[in-house]
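[step 3/7] fold_predict: job queued, chain A
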Amino acid sequence: MSLLFIAKLLVSALVIALASEIAKRDPFLGALLVALPLTSLLAMGWLFAETRDNALVTRFARDILLWVPVSLVFFVPFLLEARTRLGFVPNLLAGVALLAVTVWVVRRLLP
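[step 4/7] structure written:
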């Protein structure tokens, strides 16, 4: 394993852990932190640092922009929790299933 990979792993894990800790104290602030494109920012930064390929990073950003709205279907079961009362694990599984189906449909519709 390269030193750069270990650095990417540590920084990325720190961001996720920080967001989780903040959400325990203030769910709104934790959600705001996660809603920021931190993952995209990190991934794009690491990609550019490793490749120095601006065109590749630009294509990556375009694809992220396409998939962000699609990924929002994951949250639908959690938004319906007050009515369904399914609990965390069923909502999580339903969200993953919805996301998988939506990704499959979008992949079939796009060239």
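[step 5/7] annotate
Residues 3-25 form the longest helix (23 residues).
The radius of gyration is 17 Å.
exit 0
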